Amino acid sequence: MSDKDITRLTIRRPDDWHLHLRDGSMLQAVLPETARHFARAIIMPNLVPPVVTAAQAADYRSRIIAALPQGMDFTPLMTLYLTEGTDPEDVRRAHAAGIATAVKLYPAGATTNSASGVRDFEKVRPVLEAMAEIGMPLCVHGEVTDSDIDIFDREAVFIDKVLKPLRKKVPDLKIVMEHVTTQDAVDYVRDSHKQLAATITTHHLIINRNHILAGGIKPHYYCLPVAKREAHRIALVQAAVSGDKRFFLGTDSAPHTDPAKLQACGCAGIFTAPNTMSCLAEVFEAAGRLKKLESFTSVNGPLFYGLSPNEATITLQKGDPVTYPRHVTTPDGPVTVFDPGFELHWRVED
Ligand code: NCD
Ligand code: ZN
């Protein structure tokens, strides 16, 4: 059956391997959007202040579970924000107790709320060695932050300057290169045989840098890492639809209110939680690879993390254009939902 004959697709329930849920009223507003379709998600720790210790991760997890609407089944997989002061013993305890699934590395200053990130990688080496020993993955925001490196080159330079040396020093460490945006990153992951995988976001499969900058500046398409030129987007699509086990979905759905985004120095982040599965079905259908959607959203991620894929399923039905709210409401203002720029025909059945 070719893709154009497929109008209904049942897949294992997806997981999101990179998600920002925030806290307080924002958490309340955005959590149901993910929990509706996803069984689990890796929760980013970049709150203010960041989630650094096992105790903080346990508290944050309780707040997420408390915010979950009744009847929704969703498991937050917590991460610890790696700082130069992180205690390897605390990380071991968090992992052993099932409190934290992974550790998150932000190079200091790379993105929203990353000031406490790592400057000197030697300082975190004992933590990374402990993680390698216990098989706990490191999720990496793969951009250098040097002001003399062009923002469009920061991911490629990170691979050479940080990732390659780090993998040499701690070869057994499991690493997820998150939200990859370049052909360089795709090639690097494909050429590595061990312990390295990458997440790809929904929006980086759909937009390139023209969407942000051509014909007027579009703050709702601004995120970090910033979308690159079209050839890179195509490389990402090829990786995502290939079925290669090393690539899986991490939406990086990162809600900010419109007032925070629409200003002279607006925040980075795109909110894709409400329509991600519909967007992805369009991308995979356009590539003639609908049958690989399940690998990308529901199988490859758990395999890398050493977890079982979900037994429950969701069904996508193709039909008339899908309607969904353009905004999610919070007391601090609306959060605009990602606009893919084309009609969506795939609806996730309730
Ligand atoms: C994220 C955020 O808003 O927390 N923003 C983004 O553009 N992706 C941070 C991040 O993951 O880089
Ligand atoms: Zn993120």
CATH architecture: Alpha-Beta Barrel
Order of helices and strands: EEHEHEHEHEHEHEHHEHHHEEEE
Strand order in the largest sheet: 2-3-4-5-6-7-8-9
| CATH third-tier fold name | TIM Barrel
Rounded mean pLDDT score: 96
The SS-based structural class is: alpha/beta
Q: Radius of gyration in whole Å, from Cα?
A: 19 Å
CATH class value: Alpha Beta
Q: What is the molecular shape?
A: globular
The N- to C-terminal Cα distance equals: 26 Å
The CATH superfamily is identified as Metal-dependent hydrolases
The figure for the number of domains is 1
Low-confidence stretches are none
Bound molecules: N-carbamoyl-L-aspartate, zinc ion
Structural account:
There is one protein chain. The protein has 350 residues and is α/β, with parallel strands linked by helices. The protein has a single domain, classed as Metal-dependent hydrolases (TIM Barrel, Alpha-Beta Barrel). It has 11 helices and 13 strands. It has helices at residues 24-35, 54-67, 88-96, 125-134, 154-169, 183-191, 209-213, 230-241, 258-261, 276-286, 293-305; strands at residues 8-12, 15-19, 40-43, 75-81, 102-105, 138-140, 175-177, 196-200, 247-249, 313-318, 327-330, 333-336, 346-348. Strands 2-3-4-5-6-7-8-9 form an 8-stranded parallel sheet. Helix 2 (54-67) links the parallel strand 3 and strand 4 (75-81). Helix 3 runs parallel beside helix 4. The radius of gyration is 19 Å and the shape is globular. The model has no long low-confidence stretch (mean pLDDT 96). The structure holds N-carbamoyl-L-aspartate and zinc ion. Zinc ion binds at residues 18, 20, 44, 252, 254.
